[in-house]
Automatic annotation (TrEMBL):
Name used for this protein in its record: Phytoene desaturase
Keywords (A to Z) from UniProt: Carotenoid biosynthesis, Membrane, Oxidoreductase, Transmembrane, Transmembrane helix
Transmembrane stretches, start-end: 12-30
Gene Ontology BP term (one): carotenoid biosynthetic process
Lineage: Bacteria, Bacillati, Actinomycetota, Actinomycetes, Mycobacteriales
Annotated Pfam families: Amino_oxidase
Gene3D superfamilies, per the entry: FAD/NAD(P)-binding domain
PANTHER family, per the entry: PHYTOENE DESATURASE
Pathway: Carotenoid biosynthesis
Homology family: Belongs to the carotenoid/retinoid oxidoreductase family.
Domain Amine oxidase: 21-490
Annotated InterPro entries: Amino_oxidase, Carotenoid/retinoid_OxRdtase, FAD/NAD-bd_sf, Phytoene_DH_bac_CS
Molecular function terms from GO: oxidoreductase activity, acting on the CH-CH group of donors
């Protein structure tokens, strides 16, 4: 039986700080339960990290490039009696991605099992295709066991983990190494990379991540990917519009600069930069806690641990011509284990980088002028906690570095035909309030995950949501965190869980 702690005082008026995916999710669940909700957002639009530059007819997103687990979005809309399709169209991204390798070969990853197996048979042979089907069944079991027990619920310490689920996860090898588990199934190095690199989504190296993170591989490869029509930024706009239609009030361009609390530390009101005092019975804080809490509360909560952050990224965004083959392309370097050591342990850029190129115009051509494309290229780099690189001074050199790598990988002609170009470095992420200059928040080391991640209930009537708290980073996790924050206020919505 679940015994999550919830607020015991009256909670009719709720103030939410931040209109990213976490804040929007909390707003919809709270509004759906009859609460009066105000969302304060310091920028001029909803979306948070799902932000966009608009220039010369291009809409260049510089946050999440695809949506996974759209069922979580359906549940959010359903919380206010709405359906996703009435607010936004989700376009399937097929293949989910194309993986390119230094030997010139590629492998497409499809969400549908049979199609994925056929592609693996084409590229790697029948034995590896059979291994894929076995591995897929294995990661599905890990997901079905680990997700409800470890991710999709509020946790109040290690004691709230369901012992049966933990035993099953252990029996599935979930606490062993991720890369070792993948290697037991696949002989082909390329498949060992494809089914382990998702550790990077949660800020760890495949060789040091626990195998239970294969649930991310499951969400990514078997769950598939979608692009909201109009780009990723169109999704938070649609969520905000649905919330507004149900009576949620949004205050844009109004940063919360302080939380007024009682002598016992209970939230009373949010004070905004415009001088407004917004009273409430409870607050949901979705700004990164490490950055925001000392300012908002005037102190660092005692329980807040020192955290290790995920690696950061360099982005090169451009609008150009070309004929991209796939929406999502991952280019793997030939080095593997050592490349993560450089990035995470030594704080150096990858000497043989693996990187992502996303061209959303393959799925939604209206994001660029006719016949042109949006390119989002992402290179993992060290965060400011481990790396000692002067990113501001190196901007021009970095652009050359990324362009050289891209040219060597077949993007030379495109780079000669640019209309718009932007670079984002860890220094830019830092100026956007990302601790350690990484937009990927606290790394999901085992000691910073599940019951060991900064807890969402701050005590009294304040609750955290967003990538910096449980369950973690990414659009699905931020969306879940908003629902979990709402559940701290209204109680949890389902009854039968392990
Ligand atoms: C380059 C990049 C690529 C990514 N790729 C993917 C991907 O492909 N798939 C995926 O699932 N995830 C991806 N992510 C991660 C994902 O985008 C984030 O984890 C998620 O959007 C975080 O949502 P959030 O609501 O927790 O935080 P945020 O989006 O950061 O929202 C917090 C909001 O709070 C506001 N705010 C902060 N302080 C205050 C204040 N004092 N007063 C008022 N407002 C305040 C901010 O302006 C912001 O709008 C990517 C992120 C980046 C940057």
């Amino acid at each position: 039986m679940r015994t999550d702690r919830i607020m015991d005082s009256p909670t009719h008026r709720i103030v939410i700080i931040g209109a990213g995916f976490a804040g929007l999710s909390a707003a919809l669940y709270l509004s759906g339960s009859g609460r009066k909700v105000i969302v304060c957002e310091k920028t001029s639009a909803p979306g948070g990290k799902a932000a966009v530059f608009e220039e010369k007819g291009y809409r260049l997103g510089y946050g999440p490039s695809v949506l996974t687990m759209p069922e979580l979005i359906d549940a959010e809309f359903a919380a206010v009696g709405e359906q996703t399709r009435d607010w936004i169209e989700l376009l399937p991204v097929e293949p989910t991605y194309r993986a390119h390798f230094p030997d010139g070969t590629h492998i497409d990853v499809f969400r549908e099992a049979e199609r994925a197996a056929e592609e693996i048979e084409r590229a790697c042979g029948g034995t590896e295709a059979a291994a894929y089907l076995r591995y897929r069944r294995h990661v599905e079991r890990v997901y079905r066991c680990g997700f409800p027990a470890f991710v999709d619920r509020n946790l109040d310490g290690i004691g709230s983990l369901a012992p049966l689920a933990m035993a099953r996860l252990a029996a599935l090898g979930g606490f062993g190494g991720l890369q070792a588990s993948v290697n037991r199934y696949f002989q082909d190095k390329r498949l060992r990379q494809i089914f382990a690199f998702q550790a990077m989504y949660v800020g760890t190296a495949p060789q040091s991540a626990r195998a239970m993170y294969s649930m991310v591989t499951y969400m990514d490869t078997a769950g598939g990917a979608w692009l909201p029509r109009g780009g990723m930024h169109a999704l938070p706009r649609a969520l905000a519009a649905a919330a507004e239609a149900k009576g949620v009030r949004f205050r844009y361009d109004d940063e919360v600069i302080r939380l007024e609390t009682s002598p016992k530390g209970r939230f009373r009101a949010a004070i905004t930069a415009s001088g407004e005092r917004i009273p409430g019975d409870a607050a949901v804080i979705t700004a990164d806690p490490a950055v925001s809490l000392p300012t908002l509360l005037g102190r660092r909560p005692r329980s807040f641990p020192r955290l290790e952050y995920a690696p950061s990224c360099l982005l090169l965004l451009f609008g150009a011509g070309g004929k991209p083959e796939a929406h999502h392309s991952i280019h793997f370097g030939s080095r593997w284990t050592s490349t993560f050591e450089e990035l995470i342990d030594e704080g150096k850029p990858m000497s043989d980088p693996s990187f992502l190129v996303s061209t959303p115009t393959v799925t939604d051509p209206d994001l660029a002028p006719e016949g042109r494309h949006c390119y989002f290229t992402l290179f993992p780099v060290p965060n400011l906690q481990t790396g000692d690189i002067d990113w501001s001074a190196e901007r021009a050199a970095l652009r050359d570095y990324m362009q050289n790598v891209l040219s060597r990988n077949g993007y030379g002609e495109v780079l000669d035909d640019l209309d718009v170009v932007r670079t984002i470095t860890p220094a830019d992420w830092l100026s956007m309030d990302c601790p350690a200059g990484t937009p990927f928040s606290t790394a999901h080391l085992f000691r910073q995950s599940g019951p060991f991640r900064p807890r969402n209930l701050l005590g009294g009537n304040m609750v955290l949501a967003g990538a910096g708290t449980h369950p973690g980073v990414g659009v699905p996790m931020a969306t879940i965190s908003g629902r979990l924050a709402a559940e701290r206020i209204i109680g949890h919505r389902r009854s039968a869980e392990g």
